[in-house]
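Curious: why this fold?
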Amino acid sequence: MTEPLDFLPISGLRLASAATGIRYPGRDDLVLLEMAPGSSCAAVFTRNAFCAAPVRLARAHLAETPPRYLLINSGNANAGTGSSGLQAAEESCRILAEAAACPIEAVLPFSTGVIGEPLPLAPFRRGIPQLLADLNERHWPQAARAIMTTDTRPKLVSRQREIGGQSVRLTGMAKGSGMIQPNMATLLAYLATDAALAPELLQQALQEAIEPSFNSISVDGDTSTNDACVLVATGRSGLSIDDLDTEAGQALRSLLLEVCMELAEAIVRDGEGATKLIPIQVSGARSVEEARQVGFTIAHSPLVKTAMFASDPNWGRILAAVGRSGIPQLQVEGVRIWLGDVLIVEQGGRAASYREELGQAVMNRTDIPVRIELGRGEAEARILTCDLSFDYVKINAEYRS
């Protein structure tokens, strides 16, 4: 596995990872992020009604006090575990709080892995002393690898910009490969900047950035019980932003969106068994919500996704998905559909200029753009998805074995 070396540490944020045997023998599966005092933190969580115990606890703790630590385990989701799961999540936070001499509410827990299995606590007792002893600003690559489950590679992105006369950094890591159709963010994502922002501004910036990035991707249409996205601002760069609409605020928003977009694309490219990236651009809609509805209908179609895997220009599957997307009073004669730059549908049927070899040339690519013009308004949206391969079925059929 290639180590992502091109990253920038964030002053005021230290990380560590350890192998504790939660599920994966011989590989790191427990991660700790430590925020320097005075840091701000914002987070967005899954809307799945069966949200995991750590999600419930992290929400509660974040509402009570500024967090000091993020504690993350892979291999066990601690979801669908009832009251005992909540007790286990609380105990994992207590173990860390006692070892680090901080309030239990200053610990935010996160888990990813198999649903419905009890979370073992012995690995936390073994691992937390190791984590506290190994905290380092440069341990992003190890942490990005440790939070993986079915991912084939770690996802780590860094950017640096001159903002307001200061050099500002933003680094983020994410995990996600299957069970990806977030309704808030992605499976797990952690981002940090050395700019200073109040928690409410940080929350606003995060929510704005995830909508066109993590909230606009789908691998398989499944929303996890454990999704969480966290943004930390340590304030160590010397830049303080008190208004997101200022020049400095806009620059930071742009930087955050850039990192989120790159991480979101990395997740889709690493979709379980994925061989193709499929950007879906929907324009000419009456609203952004309408454009997203069409885009996700295409992205979730097993028939479209399997055709993409086979490099089969079976454009009728895309047409059918648009038609069943639930758009009221859709005038099909005004809809146009492209594969790449090849017009395939107009006036309610196959475009007069379309030839099979043109469509085939696009389908043979690794990236297969799909563009739909609805012809009924000015709104647009972009959705990212991937193909559906034999390996997706194999990976998920054997996930617990």
User: Anything to note?
Assistant: The first helix runs from residue 53 to 64. The chain has a mean pLDDT of 92.
